[in-house]
Specification:
By secondary structure, this protein is an alpha+beta fold. Helix content is 21%, strand content 39%. The longest helix is centred in the N-terminal third of the chain and has 26 residues.
């Protein structure tokens, strides 16, 4: 074996090793395709109900599922010019025949029914307004009901204003 053959073989080996190392490093530097961040409940609800406008001075409360249904919701309230306004938006499955969703607000000891949620824009919603300021009612609950009365039956969404 000649010296020239050994040198050529060594150079081929160096080129191969360099190529492998460059290839591995290029894979390490590739940008990872991580899933985008999960949208907030507020983002998901506003997309679902498209076109809703939230006043800049409004308080918001995320409503999370307390059942396996996986529903979500958002409550938005404003007290301005001696008028209290509260809207509850919910993305929930269609209830079984004979049942409906009802919204409630509470202050820790008392709950007031806001009424039945109405099917609107692919979800459920209710608007409540009053001349009385209910800002101290921080708890919001959505229940699945069989009878429209002043008793909560099965809670499906809950949340509270800060």
């Amino acid at each position: 074996m000649k010296t020239r053959d050994i040198i050529v073989g060594f150079l081929v080996l160096v080129v191969l090793i360099t190529g492998v190392l460059l290839f591995k490093n290029s894979k390490k530097n590739d940008v990872l395709n991580l899933p985008s961040s999960t949208p907030s409940i507020f983002q998901r609800i506003t997309e679902k109900f498209g076109g809703i406008t939230i006043p800049s001075n409004a308080d918001r409360a995320d409503l999370v599922s307390v059942m396996e249904s996986g529903g979500i919701g958002e409550a938005i309230r404003v007290f301005e010019n001696s008028k209290f306004e509260l809207t509850v938006l919910a993305d929930l499955p269609e209830p079984t025949t004979g049942y409906f969703y009802q919204a409630w607000m509470g202050n820790g000891t008392t709950f007031i029914s806001l009424g039945k949620l109405n099917l609107a824009k692919g979800g459920y919603l209710i608007d409540f307004s009053s001349a009385k300021n209910y800002s101290n009612y921080k708890e919001i609950v959505v229940t699945l009901e069989k009878t429209f009365d002043q008793k909560q039956e099965e809670s499906v969404l809950e949340g509270s204003f800060n």
